[in-house]
Amino acid sequence: MIKQIALGFFIAISSFSTAQVTSMINKENTDSSTKVYGFSSLNDKTKAYEKYNFLLENTAAVEFSKPLLEYGYQSSNMQAQENGVMIYMVKDKKIVDQWFINPTFYNVFHDGIAYSYDADKLGVIAEKYPLLYKEDKRTFVSEKEYKKQRDNFFKDPYNLIITEPDFTYQGYFDIQFPKNEQFKTVEDVQNYLKPIVEKLTKKKFDISYGITEKNILDRNQFTLSVAGDENIYKKIKLQPELTKGEWIPTVYEVTIYRKMN
């Protein structure tokens, strides 16, 4: 009787565990154009997890690795390493999904949730599909300058992942407000600024209050940043007691992960 109960319990647990298994690769998120890459951190001077770097760039490689990229039940262990292993699912050189694996803690994070995973399985993939890679950063002064080189970046077969610059804002500037009867709170400042900026541009802009050293140490003022096009900076007219900082143009940076083997 005890053996029967134990066996029943084992089957129930096995069924539950099987139901919890999920692969990073499935029919819903992959097709013939999908690439999957495993990147250890380039900041890790020990290169302890470089042995887990891999690249899957064809259907056969993806199918081979599918069971090795299965992770288990949701884990209560939310610990994470500074230098773990990133798994990127990529289409057209753009990241469409990602996982962060912590070999020391036997877990993997996806969408902020930890699941159980044994990173040694990555070694099996990496042995068959090894990868050496580097990170390349380039800066541009304008969207026009970047577009001249964009096609070449995407045509280069050694470029695995390309993180493109954000051209939403041309730059930003700060405005310092005294804390007084008119401007008692950050909300008061934002309510004052927003309609002024809206009259100066039809393009997207952003008004933000950062937890900066200035705002922390000097509680008698509020310093807010206005991000948008340069015309806002040139045309804006403020009350005499308000201090407008310098215009700081955005540095447009593209990050490219390149294959070296």
Which tags fit this structure?
261 residues; six-stranded antiparallel beta sheet; five-stranded antiparallel beta sheet; 7 helices; 16 strands; elongated
Can you give a write-up of this model?
- With 261 residues, this protein is α+β, with helices and mostly antiparallel strands.
- The chain is built from seven helices and 16 strands.
- It has helices at residues 2-20, 59-65, 120-128, 143-155, 186-198, 213-217, 230-235; strands spanning 22-23, 35-40, 54-56, 70-71, 85-91, 94-102, 107-110, 113-116, 133-140, 159-163, 171-178, 206-209, 221-228, 243-244, 248-249, 252-259.
- It has a six-stranded antiparallel sheet.
- β5 and β6 form a beta hairpin.
- The radius of gyration is 25 Å and the shape is elongated.
Topology of this protein?
Layout: H1 2-20, E1 22-23, E2 35-40, E3 54-56, H2 59-65, E4 70-71, E5 85-91, E6 94-102, E7 107-110, E8 113-116, H3 120-128, E9 133-140, H4 143-155, E10 159-163, E11 171-178, H5 186-198, E12 206-209, H6 213-217, E13 221-228, H7 230-235, E14 243-244, E15 248-249, E16 252-259
Antiparallel strand pairs: 1-4, 2-3, 2-5, 5-6, 6-7, 7-8, 9-16, 10-16, 11-13, 11-14, 11-15, 12-13
